[in-house]
Amino acid sequence: MNKNELLALIEKKRSELIQVAMSSGLNSTDAIKYSQELDALLNEYNRTFLKKA
């Protein structure tokens, strides 16, 4: 997966999280699931594209 594809997935997941959190609350099961998925995508981005020198 290239950088732009991963960034697009991150933005999509962030948008989904915001929508779920607004409708169900931040502590809802769905919001937590989306938050964890977003965390995984952000961690992948950091590992892949922001490696420490």
TrEMBL record:
Molecular function as annotated in GO: protein dimerization activity
- Highest rank taxon of the organism: Bacteria
Query: Which Pfam family is one of this chain's hits?
Result: SpoOE-like
- Alphabetized SUPFAM superfamilies for the sequence: BAS1536-like (SSF140500)
| Gene Ontology biological process | regulation of sporulation
* Protein name (database record): Aspartyl-phosphate phosphatase Spo0E family protein
